[in-house]
Amino acid sequence: MSIKPGEKLQTADAPAPSPGRSRFRYRAFGLAIHSDIPLAELEPDAAQRAEIDVLVRSAPDARLASPGPVAFEFSEDRQHLSWPTVGSFTILGRDVIEVNPAPDVRESVLSLPLLGPVMGLLLHLRGNLVLHASAIDVNGRGAVFLGDKGAGKSTTAGAFLAAGRRLLTDDVLAIQTHEAPFRILPAFPQLKLNGDAADALLLKNAVALPPPAENFPKRLQRLTGDFDHGEIPARAVYVLERGPEPAIHAMDATEALRSLMRFSFISRFPTRQMPGREATEFLRACASLAGAGQVRRLVAPDRLERLDELVRMVEADLTTPSGS
Questions:
Q1: d(CA 77, CA 146)
Q2: Which ranges constitute the DSSP H helices of 47-135?
Q3: Which residues are CB-contacts of 246 (< 8 A; sequence separation ≥ 6)?
Q4: How far apart are CA 124 and CA 133, in angstroms?
Q5: Helix or strand or coil: residue 263?
Q6: Which of 138, 150, 164, 136 is nearest to 197 (CA)?
């Protein structure tokens, strides 16, 4: 069945949508997502049964109309995240997100927290290891790029795209850790690049999108062509830092574990206490990945014109016994 981006599909067996709204059906992170609101970032899907439902059901909340602090409230079966002037989001269990939009908010703005922190938390609750990272498929080997804000995660991913590799995700990375080998769940075909990187890379199979909000700091690049949702083994995790010369350095298991925990999405919610089993599974996943020798430090060059050297270095590293 051929489906055009943004096409509305009626869903016979999904929960009742909000009055006056049609349902949209998408696939991301290996899941069928049905939504009351359009999510232009995601790929359309024909699945009849939703694994995640995005519902707009709440009455307007006057507290969302004026600026204020971001608010998080957590309980055993309900996770509430609120961004004043944007909206509030309530995760119910592991398969429902209720959205309460702020007055007059644009849907493109609403999707920023929904497909970022909210989806990241939900994917964690579903038992995945979720990292703040970008990832690329290099001949069936998944390369993951972690790092602080501004370290160059998206830029590094863009350099691999320019070399003909496949994007798996940008910003929210979900890894299935229930059985070996750990596998990356592809997200959706969009990349956020700063202006210099977007000008330098000039991706052939991408179109520039308008900014989702005023003064948005990055340029959105929508990849064209079919997006492959096939899972890929996570072969190497690279913790990025900036430097004059591209280089790859080994990390011991303790340092690797600290990096994985630091750049996990759950670390964004320090006030949320993980129940015992959830905490055990999270630590097990991080420790297994750290102890397998798959985490390394990657020095990304300060000069964008040297990114092709970085690409060649990483591709060679992925073919060595320790990176295979």
A1: 30
A2: 107-113, 119-125
A3: 298, 299, 300, 301, 306, 309, 310, 313
A4: 14
A5: coil
A6: 150
Dihedral, 13, 14, 19, 24 alpha carbons, nearest 10: -110
The predicted structure's pLDDT at residue 69: 87
Better-scored residue on pLDDT, 162 or 68: 162
Tokens describing residue 144: 């993951």
Amino acid 324: pLDDT: 41
Mean pLDDT of the chain: 89
**Would you say 6 and 38 are in contact if contact means Cβ atoms under 8 Å apart?**
yes
Q: How far apart are CA 125 and CA 252, in angstroms?
A: 28
**Which structural domains are found in the chain, ordered by start?**
24-125 (no CATH), 129-323 (3.40.50)
Q: 122 with 113: CB under 8 angstroms? A: no
In the predicted model, is pLDDT for residue 11 greater than 80? no
Q: What is the pLDDT of residue 21?
A: 56
DSSP alpha helix (H) spans, the chain: 107-113, 119-125, 153-162, 195-201, 253-262, 276-291, 307-318
Residue among 111, 245, 228, 104 at smallest CA distance from 169: 228
pLDDT digits (tens, 9 = 90+) for 220-233: 999 998 999 999 99
Q: At a CB cut-off of 8 Å and minimum separation 6, what does 249 contact? A: 296, 297, 298, 299
Task: State which amino acid sits at residue 60.
Answer: P
- Under DSSP, the state recorded for 42 is S
Which of 28-42, 64-78, 205-219, 270-284 has the weakest average pLDDT? 64-78
Instruction: Give the whole-angstrom CA distance, residue 48 versus residue 9.
Output: 10
Residue 243 pLDDT > 80 = yes
- What pTM was computed for the model? 0.90
